[in-house]
Amino acid sequence: MLVEHRGKGPTIHESAFIAPNATICGDVTIGPNSHVLSGAVITAAGGAVEIGSNCVIMENAILRGTRGNPLTLGDNVLVGPHAHLTGCTVESNAFLATGSSVFTGARVGTGAEARINSVVHLKTSLPPNATVPIGWIAVGDPCRILPPDEHEAIWLIQEPLNFPKTVFGLDRPAPGGTVMPEAMSRYAASLGKHHGTDRIVEEQS
Hints:
Blueprint (H helix, E strand, L loop, with lengths): L1 E3 L6 E2 L4 E2 L4 E8 L4 E2 L4 E11 L4 E2 L4 E3 L6 E3 L4 E2 L4 E3 L2 E2 L4 E2 L4 E2 L4 E2 L4 E2 L4 E2 L4 E2 L4 E2 L4 E3 L4 E3 L4 H11 L1 H6 L11 H12 L7 E4 L3
Parallel strand pairs: 1-4, 2-4, 3-5, 4-6, 5-7, 6-8, 6-9, 7-10, 8-11, 9-12, 10-13, 11-14, 12-15, 13-16, 14-17, 15-18, 16-19, 17-20
Antiparallel strand pairs: 1-22, 20-21
């Protein structure tokens, strides 16, 4: 399904393939010979999405541009099933395996690999040709690649990257506090811009 959002609809090269039950919403550009498979969602609800040539977005992957952080894929990129990419840059020839996540403001270098269920965290710069092993976390700039059981080491790098401020525009609360009521109120208002304005441009067949 191709959806126009806030007056902007997808631009898809004639040689690209979009599965009938994939959803492409808003200011999304998809280059030559790229393929978007069943159940994938590519949405430019907050910021543009640009996908290069010869990319494969596999089943049920989610790619989302955000305000101030467009999402860009270079050429020859594989995004595996159930992967989740938000407001990031992925350079050419990268491999993002099943269940991998790349967060807001991150950059995945040319030829890098994020293997099954790995994470490239907020504002992290994964160098060219680097590998994040299965289930491991890449965090920071300069980047460290750490196993999931090293939470304290990860948090020392992650905390100053300030997820609440970067993603929701809210200061981190004092211990015991929460940003969730204000964050979700803002998020719901932003998503509410879909109501009554989105228009289906084309049902894929």
